[in-house]
Automatic annotation (TrEMBL), chains A, B, C, D:
<dbReference type="Pfam" id="PF01264">
    <property type="entry name" value="Chorismate_synt"/>
</dbReference>
<feature type="binding site">
    <location>
        <position position="286"/>
    </location>
    <ligand>
        <name>FMN</name>
    </ligand>
</feature>
<dbReference type="GO" id="GO:0009073">
    <property type="term" value="P:aromatic amino acid family biosynthetic process"/>
</dbReference>
<dbReference type="InterPro" id="IPR020541">
    <property type="entry name" value="Chorismate_synthase_CS"/>
</dbReference>
<comment type="similarity">
    <text>Belongs to the chorismate synthase family.</text>
</comment>
<comment type="pathway">
    <text>Metabolic intermediate biosynthesis; chorismate biosynthesis; chorismate from D-erythrose 4-phosphate and phosphoenolpyruvate: step 7/7.</text>
</comment>
<dbReference type="GO" id="GO:0004107">
    <property type="term" value="F:chorismate synthase activity"/>
</dbReference>
<feature type="binding site">
    <location>
        <position position="327"/>
    </location>
    <ligand>
        <name>FMN</name>
    </ligand>
</feature>
<keyword id="KW-0456">Lyase</keyword>
<keyword id="KW-0285">Flavoprotein</keyword>
<dbReference type="GO" id="GO:0009423">
    <property type="term" value="P:chorismate biosynthetic process"/>
</dbReference>
<feature type="binding site">
    <location>
        <position position="48"/>
    </location>
    <ligand>
        <name>NADP(+)</name>
    </ligand>
</feature>
<protein>
    <recommendedName>
        <fullName>Chorismate synthase</fullName>
        <ecNumber>4.2.3.5</ecNumber>
    </recommendedName>
</protein>
<feature type="binding site">
    <location>
        <begin position="301"/>
        <end position="305"/>
    </location>
    <ligand>
        <name>FMN</name>
    </ligand>
</feature>
<dbReference type="InterPro" id="IPR000453">
    <property type="entry name" value="Chorismate_synth"/>
</dbReference>
<keyword id="KW-0521">NADP</keyword>
<dbReference type="GO" id="GO:0008652">
    <property type="term" value="P:amino acid biosynthetic process"/>
</dbReference>
Length: 360, 360, 360, 360
């Protein structure tokens, strides 16, 4: 298998390339009886769509999700939900000038090394276009989780060196979609937007960090050994194009603390719930949710496609120049937000179903 | 399932608790014909063992691996390799003073929330004791990889705020085991050791960072979508006890770079191999190895067990004081090194087997 | 998950209901570099299609397979092959007369018991319509196997009490598609056809047996324990609608033999190959192919839909009469042949890929 | 992987060979809170044990199951249950006279073809010794199912040509263990025993049929497509050594019936339950249980080891004579009964856990 299936019980399988006929995704394992809001799926697609604002790529892509199966009279039936998204434009163009060149820090070379040949018309299966299918599936998972009172909210925490510098508790997360950057700190958002436009003007790109906050997960989800909840979140998020790092709770900064500073003390709140006074654990202890907010951060590198000549080689190993053109993202962060939401939702939906067999 | 299986083709299933009769691991999928060096497995166990130096826990644990199946006349047979490790001492002690208390930042509460009850004699399945089985399996994977010319070398890059501050290329990795810290920078190692002893004297603990460098992986391993090579490495490493973050290649630091600074230019070396001039990609592009060294860093929090009174609650939600005692690690980093080696080996062995079906 | 994925390495996931928008299938794991003949896929679809002859249902169904991904310039790329088959006619009809009735020996009641509600417009996911997706995937697997010299040939061995009464070696298997029944024994085929037409006239249905012969599989495919080659074939074939039994090699008849009569003696043939003088083992010993022809038989019950009034109950448990109407198969056997071919191909393609990791 | 894992949620992984140090099994996925009766596991082992009566092999085997993990204070903890069974006698003997010979209808040749070499001291991994681990795991599954009111009762229905000739409803299944054959029809049992002793005296072996009856399974277990309940039962049973065929409900005999004769009419019983008047469906419709008794039959060939000289070849392809010796089973049926029970239990335990996610 090529690793195109995610999850064990809420099992999502995708197919599709950037320049093929279309993409698709099958969700096998969504329980029967969920009210499915098709509009809400399409709304998540719009958050990922190119051309949605002036700080993302102006490329046009079809993003209409067609549901072929798995629902009846507005509810999930328990059988696989099949969805397809046709690519808008597969006209054959002239790719002769680039078809045997390896674009730096793209997957052109590694695909050729792996498969012996590749679809040279674009990233093919390694294109971020593939994430459209993830977002469609994630939108279904988000509805499943919403029915349980769970909310997943990702936002842009950093662009280049510009950070919100604030803990998520100090931000109003309802503001995430109030600006094009998807940063709930309006002042930082404005700075970030300026930076992105400046980078774009230079034909260059820049990276950043997405933070995700998940509330409403009850204690007891996740597994104690290999499938720890944060390990599954880490894998899911690291599998997003351009993601280079993942940390949850205190993360890399926590390594400098002492145990006596780091530990989260338990207490019983007025409602009788078990809580912790601090949350350096990031809502997960021993791989299992403890009922506190789950939060993590994901690092995204600058997009590899730049509008500058770059040294490279072709498939014969000869030196060539790769010349950037086309309409690419100066900064992937605003569009990465709904993808992080989607991946977090897929992981949590899976662990929700698994948790139902914790006990007899 | 409780998530105790790792891998798809090199499939490792573990069992066992800290205070039960014993641990075990089954490797299903190791191809026939590998010369298996049993001593080498035991040597890796010794690197993880408690009591190996004065900066780790002085607790005694049995760590003798017994191989029950899957080898014949010194070679793997292709059938499952079953290994058991008996616990040395399961005498029943008096646990009444702690059996219903939730130790801060341990998995006591989350286990109870998940399973309804738990083994109160220690961490049970969430104890780091469980990683003994991983190291045994990882040692087999390392032998498989060594037969292909692959070397995995992890080391301690940071303890608390003390860092080597050097790139792995600037260090002599043959020095890793030359000191108790497992840091190949002798000056930094000495500082780290002093810090660990100081922290231990205070009854406290401290975190750090392990770096792992993998050489010899050919181009073409890894999958393009969910099972990207770095995503699988990330999950595997994040599943180790106390791990809070993972980054590969340029990682979190890379987000501030521009694409033009971050991209790795391709060239053809004198031997005719495709290479990159820099390696911010960390040896992986589009989730697939490109033949350069693979490297990543993993953050470990300070151990939760400290020798200080801590506020907590018991299973009835009543306020209690948790008093630390026993012989615990002041810093988990030196013993985390072989576990990171093991998990990296499990991931790579799996992707090696998968890569054999890349093409017809 | 709802069990809509088949295989471990050649991994096939299907979706779709009989009265929904369409069906689909994703093949994840087909290696790169296979020349894919799209016409050949469509030819297998035609062998399964309703309306192909006067002894099958005259219902019309769309069966055009559209390939959305996974191929480029006529070859498989190694990434998932996504295929969709739109249903021709999803006009809403009036189902009020049957929508809450449980048709005898259909899955109406068990679906309701499982999922709480069901798509009452037909069999939904339990309809044999679902097998269209299997045949499309199986046709790809057959091409993979054909490139290795493997041939899968199923045929109708029995309809009601009418049997060929001949061993497959005594039949000319090139005649399978020479008659509507798909029985390579012309005399038996004529009798079977007469019987099917007689049964149909009576508004009734009849069962039968499909036999499958697979040649060209080298020794060494299959696994020794749970995933024995014949066990996987058995599961795959038993998962076809209406299949009630599976036997391979000597099967049920072999139980009356003595070991001295049943054992297959080994010898070395003139070409130096290891062979057996008889083949009661059915080409599989200890779950692993031995290089002889693999053969098995599958029993199919009479189709449950009959044109006769039947006693039943409705969802409220009240007694009702179910009146048959519509255009259904009097005998599923001729159309089951390509489905058995497809399932056998899926199993073998999977074990081919697995066998590549038998040895280092 | 070598296919040594069974199940998706109640996941059982085995290891071990006939002449190695020992066998083992890990159950990952047994929910927390099951009262585990260790004696009952050992009782099932005794039903499979060699030497239990005069009609089975008189070979001695260790069959003591040691539970290493996964239980605490008499209850399952939700973490993996690890069990080992040491082989009693691994003294090195002289195997030089057979070590390169292929025993007819054994797995000697196919193992060599697959793995390149094999453990020549016996069947190795293909030995029926491996089923000891299955019985241990199945005994845990049976306890899980018993807590839900489910009973699995297999018995010998046929030995050679001697059949009970009775439907299971006409037999008193409490008599299964009242004789050495495990046939609840005392008259048939006596005849069978005489036949087995006669065959044994002749140094030969004979096959037979096991029937299994499962009561108490509620409607709604099983999956509609590939993982149909009977398909999973079929695979599990076909994976038992020497099994050549599987049929459920009306099976092969049902193919000659007409639909009007075969269909099971629904009715509502006095207690208000949905029932069927007949049960040719074998308790499963569309792959999903309907609440009636589930029943199936499994064909076992005569054991391949006979005390007679047989023609064969050695690893060099030279003609040799294989001379039988040792203490082998004249008829595997009495000992197959607990193994069929075990495999049926593993399948049902898995589908029980899966069924808990049928609906939201």
């Amino acid at each position: 298998m090529s690793g195109s299936t995610h999850g064990t019980l809420f099992r999502v399988t995708t197919f599709g390339e950037s320049h093929g006929i279309g993409l698709g995704v099958t969700i096998d394992g969504c329980p029967a009886g969920l009210d499915l809001d098709v509009e809400a799926i399409q709304r998540e697609m719009a958050r990922r769509r190119p051309g949605q604002s002036k700080i993302v790529t102006q490329r046009q892509e079809g993003d209409l999700v067609e549901i072929l199966s798995g629902t009846f009279e507005g509810k999930t039936t328990g059988t696989p939900i099949g969805m397809v998204i046709y690519n808008q434009d597969q006209r054959s163009k002239d790719y002769s000038h680039i078809h045997d060149k390896y674009r730096p820090s793209h997957a052109d070379y590694t695909f050729t090394a792996k498969y012996g040949h590749r679809d040279y018309r674009g990233g093919g299966r390694s294109s971020a276009r593939e994430t459209a299918a993830r977002v469609a599936a994630g939108a279904v998972a988000q509805q499943l989780l919403a029915s349980l009172g769970i909310k997943i909210r990702s936002y842009v925490d950093q662009v280049g060196a510009i950070q919100t510098g604030k803990d998520h508790g100090a931000l109003d997360l309802s503001l995430i979609d109030s600006n094009d950057v998807r940063c709930p700190d309006p002042a930082a958002a404005a700075e970030m937007e300026t930076k992105i436009l400046e980078v774009r003007k230079a034909g260059d790109t820049i990276g950043g960090v997405v933070k995700c906050v998940i509330s409403g997960v009850p204690a007891g989800w996740g597994e104690p050994v290999f499938d720890k909840l944060h390990a599954d979140l880490g894998k899911a998020v690291l599998s997003i194009n351009a993601c280079k790092g993942f940390e949850y709770g205190s993360g890399f900064a926590g390594v400098s603390l002492r145990g006596s500073e780091h530990n989260d003390a338990f207490y019983t709140d007025e409602a009788g719930n078990t809580r912790t006074r601090t949350n350096r654990s990031g809502g997960i202890q021993g791989g299992i949710s403890n009922g506190e907010d789950i939060y993590f951060r994901a690092a995204f590198k600058p997009v590899a496609t730049i509008i500058t000549d770059q040294e490279s080689i072709n498939e014969s190993g000869e030196r060539v120049t790769v010349t950037g053109k086309g309409r690419h993202d100066p900064c992937v962060l605003p569009r990465a937000v709904p993808i992080v939401d989607a991946m977090a939702a897929l992981v949590l939906a899976d662990h929700f179903l698994r948790s139902r067999n914790n006990r007899l």
